[in-house]
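Narrative summary of target 7.
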Amino acid sequence: MTCAPAPEFDDCVVISPVGSSLAVSLWNSRESPAHETITAFCAQLTGPGSRAEAHEIWDMNAHGGEGFATFVAGLVKDFRGWQGVRTWRSFTEDLTVDAVHTTGGHVDLTWTLSNNVHVLDTRWSASVVITVDAGEELGRLAADLDEFLTPERT
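Modeled conformation, tokenized:
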């Protein structure tokens, strides 16, 4: 599968601090034809001189799995803070997001893309840390993700 974030995609979410070369791009959200409770999407991490992509990332609300939008909405609900690291993983563990509430009302989101962790001879990973305001910015991200991860059901 070949896909790339492009202006023609209406369903593209880009998370990037103002004035930074770091970015997380999510695009091409669509319902799995076989499972109504699975949404697949693509992701790209960019930083100075580097880029990593993963395709067919599964966001799953079935079988007791917590969807990504639900995870981020939970962070917004606890915007005043929490202890330790909160983690969300895609079904096949090719996208992991760790959230740490830091001083000053901010949240560090560590986005890690990797190939399937069960492929031992060709493992790779790349990470980007994006800091967002625990209130308004995180709330806007949660709303964007909710819309992005709820593709039109026909």
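The chain has one domain: 13-148.
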